[in-house]
Amino acid sequence: MKDVIILGIETSCDETSAAVVVNGRKILSNIIASQIDLHAEYGGVVPEIASRKHVELILPVIDSALKEAGIDLEDVDAIAVTYGPGLVGALLVGVTAAKAIAAALDKPLIKVHHIEGHIAANYISHPDLKPPYIGLIVSGGHSHIVHVKDYLDFEILGITRDDAAGEVFDKIARVLGLGYPGGPVIDKQAKLGNPKAVHFPRVNFPNGSYDFSFSGLKTAVINHINQARQKGEELNIPDICASFQQAVVDVLVDHTLKAAKSLDVNTIALAGGVASNSQLRETLQSRAQKIGMDAIFPTPVLCTDNAAMIASAGYYSFLKDEFADLTLNAIPYLSIGEGHK
Ligand code: KG4
Ligand code: ZN
């Protein structure tokens, strides 16, 4: 079969990204313009600022992706774009650009679910990966355990009932005055601390549920910090970070391994921004190995938002002739797998 070249576009949150990927697995370019510095002074993403910045960046970023790949727009077989979930104004910039290119060049348009994109990042980092496997997707907006039955067939096994894992990392970092985004800095601090110094709660739901809840943990950590401050005690930041991170990792890994065991699936693929967390990677891999399972994850650059993962996910829709038309709209709330029904 002839190579399939897909231009991917991602603008769902605070990264403007365009990528060129061949056959869903080989990256020719993956340009990511991060707006993190712009949002850092507000301690989180400001939607209106994100949309405006995407408008400024989208065309230069697409141009750079084509240039780095050494191809023209005419060489592209299809355009894949994130259409949800995400910030509606941000999503609309990518969707509009993708529709304009598809219409102008009469190329097929593919709609991609952002979380399905995160999962697909594993196809790039692990070219031999094939479904079925269990996906653990943990980002700033989502925490999901998913049974990936086939490339376009997903069953959600567990979700967070309140905060996403990354959101809690960001919140705790803010309370500790460590800046935004919180994940990388907590990860670094935790390496210097004792994960058993403070016991923070781990929430499990009855009836074999794989769901998560992190808001109680968040409150417990904030209370611990406030109480220490009120007593005038010096905070041991590395110990707090290590203990908090251990609590998140324990729950994520416990629930994921339980789900994999019950479905008799032996491969676990980690994805999303929090998948960069060193302790999560190490713990999942070592505990999986002990029970004869394989845990894999994308390279760090493919864990955070990027368009290569969107192009990769789009390739599997391309193979099934699943195309969108020019009525495609941004959908801020969208369930995994919903777009394939
Ligand atoms: O996937 P992503 O780039 O954007 C969303 O779709 O949300 O994830 C961003 C999230 C942020 O909450 C950030 O703090 C977290 O991923 N993150 C980490 C690490 N690196 C990024 N969390 C824990 N440990 C890390 N090393
Ligand atoms: Zn994401």
**Main sheet characteristics:** 5 strands, mixed
Radius of gyration: 20 Å
Helix content: 40-55%
CATH superfamily assignment of the largest domain?
ATPase, nucleotide binding domain
Task: Tell me the domain tally.
Answer: 2
Write the element-wise H/E pattern from the N-terminal end onward.
EEEHHEHEHEEEHHHHEHEHH
- Bound ligands, each once: 5'-O-[(R)-(carboxyoxy)(hydroxy)phosphoryl]adenosine, zinc ion
Could you say what the CATH architecture of the largest domain is? Answer: 2-Layer Sandwich
CATH topology of the largest domain: Nucleotidyltransferase, domain 5
> What does the average pLDDT come to?
96
CATH class assignment of the largest domain:
Alpha Beta
**Class computed from helices, strands and strand pairing:** alpha/beta
How many helices? The count is 11
Low-confidence stretches: none
Distance between the termini: 27 Å
Beta content: 15-25%
> Oligomerization state of this entry?
single chain
Beta strand count: 10
Provide a concise account of the structure shown.
By secondary structure, this protein is of the alpha/beta class. The protein has helices at 36-40, 47-69, 88-105, 114-125, 165-175, 182-190, 215-230, 237-263, 278-290, 300-303, 307-319; strands at residues 5-10, 15-22, 26-34, 78-84, 109-113, 133-138, 143-150, 153-159, 267-271, 294-296.
